[in-house]
Specification:
The complex is a heterodimer of chains A (194) and B (697). Chain A has 194 residues and is mainly alpha-helical. In chain A, 86% of the residues lie in helices and 0% in strands. Chain A is built from six helices and no strands. In chain A, helix 1 (2-40) runs parallel beside helix 6 and helix 4 (85-115) runs antiparallel to helix 5. The longest helix of chain A has 39 residues, at 2-40. With 697 residues, chain B is mostly helical. In chain B, helix 4 packs parallel to helix 6 (142-165) and helix 9 packs parallel to helix 12. Chain B is globular and about 75 Å long. Classes of the chains: A mainly alpha (194), B mainly alpha (697). The A-B interface holds A 3-4, 7, 10, 13-15, 17-18, 21-22, 24-26, 28-29, 32-33, 35-36, 39-40, 43-45, 120-125, 127-128, 130-131, 145, 149, 153, 160, 162, 166 and B 140-141, 144, 206, 210-211, 213-214, 217-219, 244-249, 251-253, 255-256, 259-260, 263-267, 272-275, 278, 282, 583-584, 586, 624, 628, 631-632, 634.
Chain lengths: 194, 697
């Protein structure tokens, strides 16, 4: 039995390490998108530039939402580690809502651009903008899905070791997306007004 | 309505060329034949339970080998077609292929050989050997491994899909550089097949690489510090580290190109402000390290082979590891030498040219460690060692021609010429492929329990070497004469034709070599009683993989060994093997999740190739569902009890004893020659026909 627990602990450590490696590969994927945005953001072919399109207050709201959600996500993990089921669920519930609000603001921004005729097909600047920010949004969506399903299982099965491990990975993922967003906020939004 | 359900897939897109119809027919016939055999022998269940859903890295390794070997022949047929075309198509003659068809063939050749042959074999070897070498029972994540394998299979099917279902393959060259690969210049399905075949298998590679990094860094046997790891494991580790560093770039680049083609984005189309040169940069940032990802495990194989067959420890292990580290680090920063002619400033070109030249230093360190290992060694010239010596010769020629190309002024002359093609084939064939052959002949006894036929192996080796020189020396000369690559027709006055004919002859000699390799395997199976490896250690090996039975039990080691020095198994032989005792072993359960996800990923790619949007959405949702179900399945392992292990081990020991007794009674038979093989097959066939043996089937 001791042997079995050691086996479990070693497996946990491996999964955590592997997930870090995965996050680095994901970061490289984003780095390509950042690089293409940096190369292409001036190529508007006569269309509006970032300065004309972006509204900083909106981007700031998104940033505050996401940073706060990272904080509540951290609280949730602490609660899960001290085996407090309802505290965990409440913290991750708040994280989920904040994430969803972030996503809705992003959707709102995208729809406004598209309605005013500024789409992926307009020019290279907008192609790289939509794909960079959209890929981040897609990651947030999958994070929300992961969070929702995990919370469902916590309700059903209670907090067990496997689920706490999933929450630990999820919070790594969530903080990672936060860091990527900080770069998006700086390079894309603040950069446009620099 | 029809367009909604089938997208652009219409009757017109079904195959109607004789080539594609032939291809379709062959594929369907092969599939039906396999299905017939499986049904007759009632083996569908066996195939599914014992192989397809297996998470055993040894079985996955074998499946990689079989697929890669099949694709090697597929890609080899492409070469012969290309060389026949080039040998004939001079002056008024236009050869056997249309220009467009020729372009598709050289594109497919490059993709298949790099992604599905070399990567397949290398991943197969890493799968089989690395866990054994580090004393592990399985991989860090068995699920990621089977998923990676099946995504590779998804890529294989996708790259051959145009044969079965029609449409064209990309006619763009193996990296499909923009803007040629954009929708304006390549409107057909070709580039889409290319994108999705690479995308699916590339994601599989990233997942596999993460898994092997976890395994090598976290699952080594107790006592095996990182500086005691076998060199093949080191090479694999460097290779996998490079893979996680660059495969995400490929994934991202392919997605951007997909967005350009499918959604009309403007990343690489100059018209909307995109930058085609950005594509070239991005794809080579991945593409150059990619060949080193293939090369480093091969370096590791050669280190194992040269130490074993010189009966000496590797000379300067540390220098060897640092050499590999240097090659890996530098390989990440030389991509620009693929396009010195882009128009970057002289300073930029000089920088990348210099870095490229510097790679020769760690590579030379590696070569000197091998040569120093042979120095005063008791060298055995078995086939793995022959492949090593062939590698030393040909890889050096390739390396030196690479140094010539590294000088930007020389490169301006030789860029896109056949000199370049000859250069990288010297490295990829002489390095990677010979490394794979050395590895397979070295570890073959471990895979199957019997070694390969040496005589026919030597014949095959010489065919490869002679054939290689006959085809690639003329290719170097042609390059210097000014022949460009991807040439489907040339003027008679150029004087190219004799060289092209020589190349074709060389290609046919290589084809004979491949034929001999197939015969070698069949002949070895015929004589397997005689070639049996009862000890598990046919070459007097030094590393842990030889401490297991041949082939190893599914749990690899009954007792996880404790490692003291680098030559862990040599120590065990000197100090006496540990007393076997049996313990409970936790093993992963088989799973079909890899197959399901890969099949759905294939459907996503297929749907995007033919613009069937609903299918893409449905398949993506399917992937998410399968993933969620699996992620929350907490019952993925089972325990093999000590008693079960004991009975498996005792049965094996008894079987080995029986074989040793039997083969001891048999007279020592020599390995059969090609002539003896032909006579054997002839007698066998005559026997079947005369005695009407097929009736009993």
């Amino acid at each position: 039995m001791v042997n079995h627990e050691a086996h479990e602990a070693a497996a946990d450590e491996r999964v955590m390490f592997g997930f870090w490696v995965y996050l680095m590969t994901d970061l490289l994927l984003f780095s390509v998108l950042f690089a293409s945005y940096s190369v292409l953001h001036g190529n508007t072919v006569g269309g509006p530039t970032g300065r004309d399109l972006f509204t900083l207050p909106l981007a700031l709201q998104e940033t505050i939402l996401l940073l706060t959600s990272s904080f509540t996500c951290g609280l949730g993990l602490l609660a899960a580690r001290s085996n407090k089921k309802w505290q965990t669920l409440i913290c991750f519930g708040i994280t989920f809502i904040l994430g969803a609000l972030f996503l809705s603001l992003e959707m709102k921004e995208f729809t406004e651009f598209i309605h005013s005729g500024q789409t992926l097909q307009t020019n290279a600047f907008l192609s790289s903008f939509f794909v960079l920010v959209g890929t981040h949004g897609l990651h947030i969506t999958s994070g929300l899905l992961w969070m929702g399903v995990t919370m469902g299982y916590i309700l059903k099965r209670g907090l067990n070791k496997a689920l706490v491990r999933k929450l630990a990975l999820l919070s790594l993922f969530w903080h990672f997306l936060d860091i990527v967003w900080i770069f998006i906020f700086t390079i894309v939004y603040l950069g446009a007004f620099a | 309505m029809k367009e909604f359900f089938l997208g652009r897939l219409t009757q017109d897109s079904l195959p109607h060329d004789w080539v594609t119809v032939g291809g379709t027919g062959t594929f369907i016939a092969m599939f039906l034949f396999a299905a017939l055999i499986l049904t007759r022998t009632k083996r569908w269940k066996w195939l599914w339970n014992d192989w397809l859903t297996s998470v055993d890295p040894k079985k996955i390794g074998i499946m990689y080998f079989l697929t890669a070997a099949f694709m090697l022949i597929r890609g080899g047929i492409d070469v012969i077609l290309m060389w026949v075309q080039q040998a004939l198509s001079s002056g008024s003659s236009h050869g056997i292929l249309s220009a467009d068809h020729y372009q598709q063939i050289f594109t497919a050749h490059g993709n298949i050989m790099v992604f599905f042959v070399a990567m397949g074999f290398i991943f197969g070897l890493i799968n089989y050997i690395v866990p054994l070498q580090i004393g592990a029972r399985d991989l860090a994540s068995p699920l990621l491994n089977t998923l990676g394998f099946w995504l590779y299979i998804g890529g294989v099917v996708m790259v051959n899909m145009f044969f079965v279902l029609g449409g064209q393959y990309a006619a763009t060259g193996w990296l499909a550089v923009a803007p040629l690969s954009g929708i304006a210049f390549s409107p057909g399905t070709g580039v889409d097949y290319w994108i999705w075949s690479l995308q699916i298998s590339g994601i599989g590679t990233t997942l596999g690489a993460i898994n092997f990094i976890m395994t090598i860094l976290k699952m080594r046997a107790p006592g095996m510090t990182i500086w005691k790891m076998p060199l093949f494991t080191w090479g694999s580790l460097f290779s996998m580290l490079m893979a996680v560093a660059v495969f995400p770039l490929l994934t991202a680049t392919l997605f951007l190109q997909f967005f350009d083609r499918y959604f009309g984005a403007h990343f690489f189309t100059a018209l909307g402000g995109g930058d085609p040169m950005m594509y070239t940069n991005l794809i080579w940032m991945w593409g150059h390290p990619e060949v080193y990802i293939l090369m480093l495990p091969a370096f590791g194989i050669f280190s194992e082979v040269v130490a074993t067959f010189s009966r000496k420890p590797i000379a300067s292990y540390t220098a060897n590891v640092l050499g590999m580290a240097g090659v890996s680090a530098l390989a990440l920063s030389v991509w620009l030498h693929h396009f010195f002619t882009m128009g970057a400033s002289a300073d930029v070109n000089a920088f990348f040219g210099l870095i490229t030249l510097v790679i020769a230093i760690p590579t030379a360190v590696l070569f000197f460690t091998w040569i120093a290992t042979m120095h005063r060694g008791l060298i055995r010239f078995d086939t793995p060692m022959l492949w090593f010596l062939g590698f030393v010769t040909i890889f050096t020629i390739g390396g030196v021609s690479g140094l010539i190309l590294a000088f930007p002024p020389a490169d301006f002359q030789l860029h896109n010429s056949l000199f370049l093609v000859a250069h990288f084939h010297s490295n990829v064939i002489g390095g990677v492929l010979f490394g794979i052959f050395a590895g397979i002949s070295y570890w073959f006894p471990k895979f199957t329990g019997f070694r390969l036929n040496e005589r026919i192996g030597r014949n095959a080796f010489w065919c490869w070497i002679i054939g290689f020189c006959l085809s690639f020396v003329p290719m170097y000369i042609l390059g210097i004469m000014g022949a460009t690559r991807r040439l489907d027709h040339y003027d008679a006055q150029t004087g190219y034709q004799p060289f092209f004919i020589l190349m074709l002859i060389g290609g046919l000699v290589i084809a004979v070599g491949v034929g001999l390799q197939i015969i070698q395997i069949v002949a070895s199976i015929i004589q397997k009683g005689n070639l049996r490896d009862a000890t598990g250690d046919p070459w007097n090996g030094r590393t842990l993989e030889w401490a297991t039975a041949s082939p190893p039990a599914f749990y690899n080691f009954t007792v996880i060994p404790h490692v003291i020095t680098r030559d862990a198994f040599l120590d065990m032989k000197r100090l006496g093997l540990p007393e076997p005792h049996y313990e409970d072993i936790t093993m992963p359960k088989n799973t079909a999740v890899g197959i399901y996800i890969a099949a759905l990923a294939f459907l996503v790619g297929f749907a995007f190739v033919w613009h069937i949007n609903w299918l893409a959405v449905v398949a993506m949702i399917g992937i998410i569902i399968v993933f969620v179900i699996r992620a929350f399945n907490e019952d993925s392992e089972y325990v093999v009890t000590a008693e079960e292990v004991k009975s498996i081990e005792e049965a094996r020991i008894a079987a080995t004893a029986a074989i040793t007794k039997k083969s001891g009674a048999m007279s020592e038979q020599e390995d059969m020659s090609v002539r003896e093989f032909v006579i054997y097959v002839y007698d066998f066939a005559i026997d079947i026909i005369r005695n009407k043996k097929w009736k009993s089937w």
